[in-house]
Specification:
It is built from 15 helices and four strands. By secondary structure, it is α/β, with parallel strands linked by helices. The protein has a four-stranded parallel sheet with strand order 2-1-3-4, with helices on both faces. The longest helix has 15 residues. The relative contact order is 0.15.
């Protein structure tokens, strides 16, 4: 039986955790690694942040972080870990869903694919995208929640926070450069081994396609999608003026254009975040 490794490459706040949990909860032949987000290749291939992140990981008391640090220092051990310790006996698939992998290059992706192939494992890639303003707002809310900060997402304050994050490469450019990721994946992998999804249509018109890609019965995905869609959406509480909305949307103009041209995706229909109800 073919062994499959699902590589999730982002983007942040586009239902990547939901997608990973589909595999974890619905595939009896799925083997879980030490973490959903291994954070290996983004650090190993980064000249700027790699050494710092290795040092941080190596000093963690958590065994998970110590394992990841070893994988970063010796990439062969990453592939051997999944080959010999996770995907064995009746376990025929596993995954690593790390949002920061969307920064990897064509060469990086080809390396990952070839190393797994040497071990008889096929790599299938999942890249989920989301309207960038909504994605940014959702990220801001998540970070405040994780830091236990009470935040009133309204008026000018919300806009100022959004602008601050737009100037932060780690918060914005890192997760919103869809063109880079899409083109790199298309050059490194064959079409049949890539799933491009959109947060706004993932739970409706793309559900059958995702079911086929993951080889999970559509009935299970429909049930999981219903639960996810019933979650509250805090982004709807963000309010901006028309001028502020225009500024935010203009910042992402190239993202809109690329997605429209590349996927024939109707951004005017689907990419109207809740915070922009009055904006056309």
């Amino acid at each position: 039986m073919t062994r499959i490794f699902y590589l999730g490459v982002g983007t942040q706040k586009a239902a990547t955790t939901w997608c990973y949990n589909l595999l974890l909860n619905n595939k009896i032949n799925f083997g879980r690694g030490v973490s959903k987000e291994m954070q290996v290749f983004n650090i190993a291939f980064s000249d700027k942040f790699g050494p710092m992140h290795r040092s941080i990981l190596a000093q963690q008391n958590n065994p998970k972080f110590r394992s990841i640090a070893r994988f970063i220092d010796n990439l062969d051990s990453y592939f051997e870990y999944f080959d010999k310790y996770i995907m064995r006996d009746c376990i025929t698939c596993s995954a690593d869903f790390t949002n920061e992998y969307n920064t990897l290059t064509v060469e990086n992706f080809k390396y990952i694919k070839e190393e797994f192939l040497k071990r008889g494992i096929v790599v299938k890639v999942i890249f989920l995208m989301r309207e960038p303003v909504s994605r940014l707002i959702s990220m801001i809310l998540m970070r405040h929640k994780n830091a236990n900060i009470n935040f009133d997402p309204g008026g000018t304050t919300a806009f100022e926070i959004a602008l601050h994050n737009l100037k932060n490469p780690h918060a914005d450019v890192l997760y919103s450069n869809y063109e880079h990721t899409v083109l790199a994946l298309q050059e490194a992998f064959i079409k049949e081994d890539i799933f491009f999804g959109f947060y706004e249509t993932l739970f409706s018109t793309q559900l059958v396609e995702l079911s086929n890609f993951l080889d999970i019965p559509i009935e299970l995905l429909q049930s999981e999608a219903l639960v996810y869609q019933n979650k509250s959406d805090d982004t709807k509480f963000f309010k901006y003026t028309i001028e502020e909305l225009v500024m935010l949307k203009d910042h992402y103009r190239s993202v809109y254009t690329f997605v429209e041209d590349k996927f024939n995706f109707n951004t005017r229909t689907y990419w109207k975040p809740d915070c922009k109800k009055e904006y056309n």
